[in-house]
Design goal:
Layout lengths: L5 E4 L2 E2 L8 E6 L2 E6 L4 E4 L18
Antiparallel strand pairs: 1-5, 2-4, 3-4
Length: about 60
């Protein structure tokens, strides 16, 4: 079995303006935006810790 070594990540900000490429969300009780114009694919070895995972109901549309 082949195990993928890369993951897709998108940074989250609690500051800044609303743009079409940003999605409002709540994570760990903080309101913020996922910055989709800065999405990256990185090797799992570069990750220090997992801060969270977004489920569909957590998006604020």
């Amino acid at each position: 079995m082949i195990v993928p070594r890369a993951v897709i990540v998108a940074p989250m900000t609690t500051k800044g303006q609303s743009y079409p490429s940003r999605v409002a969300c709540e994570l760990q009780g903080k309101q913020g935006q996922i910055v989709l114009d800065q999405i990256r694919t990185v090797d799992k070895a570069r990750l220090v810790r997992k801060l969270g995972c977004m489920d569909q109901p957590k998006f604020l549309c």
